[in-house]
Amino acid sequence: MTTAQPTVVAREKDLAGLKKRHRITVAGVDYWLTDDPEPDGTGMATAPISRSRLVDGNAEKFAQPAPGTEEKWQG
User: Source organism's superkingdom (predicted)?
Assistant: First the structure.
């Protein structure tokens, strides 16, 4: 069985300098990179992301806001 890993796809230059455990915000929601961005050779790069913060290799979960609210994820 395989599971889908949420990923961000962006221009390589926009992800430059980001590393595993760095936080990004997409549409007002915080995500943490679970690995370093990988360039694809075309000027684009992908990076796996998670809504949990990684601490020493362990995921530290935060309370999830209620659907449809403006409350942001803690981080």
Answer: Bacteria
Domain boundaries, position 42: 7-52
Q: What is the pLDDT of residues 34-72, one digit of tens each?
A: 999 999 999 999 999 998 765 455 555 555 555 544 444
How far is Cα 3 from Cα 39, in angstroms, rounded to an integer? 22
Residue 45 domain-assigned (yes or no):
yes
Residue 10's DSSP bridge partners are: 45
β-strands 7-11, 23-26 pairing: unpaired
Domain count, the chain: 1
Is the model's pTM score more than 0.70?
Answer: no
